[in-house]
Amino acid sequence: ANTPFVGLQRTTSVTKQIQAIRGMNDCLPAESGIWQWVENTIRQVVASYGYEELRTPIVESTDLFKRSIGEVTDIVEKEMYTFAD
After folding, report:
1. Fewer CB within 10 Å, N or C, the chain?
2. Are 54 and 48 spatial neighbours (Cβ–Cβ below 8 Å)?
């Protein structure tokens, strides 16, 4: 039976263990302070050289990558996650 979430299906067999997506690990509270210190230190050093922060989108349209690197590449076929709207 389909769940109310698009693209997800309920399984009747043994529940599978959910694993983090490779390269997309959570930053837990015990580690947050360390990461904030590292980020702030880097921010101060690069600012002293005249650089400014640039924030880019976390996700991009799959079509953007298909157009720029080709539809049949390892990046598009194996290393990207495409979410259907």
Report:
1. C
2. no
The amino acid sitting at 60 is: E
Q: How far apart are CA 75 and CA 68, in angstroms?
A: 11
The residues pairing with 9 across neighbouring beta strands, listed in sequence order, are 2
Residues 9 and 83: their CA atoms lie apart, in Å, by 15
Cα separation of the two ends of the chain:
21
Taking CA 63 as the corner, what is the angle to CA 58 and CA 67, rounded to the nearest 5 degrees? 115
At 9-60, the pLDDT tens digits run: 555 555 667 676 777 778 899 999 999 999 999 999 999 999 998 988 777 7
Cβ atoms of residues 20 and 26 within 8 Å:
yes
Which amino acid would we find at residue 43? R
The answer to whether the pTM exceeds 0.85 is: no
Phi, psi (degrees; rounded to nearest 5) at 19: -115, 150
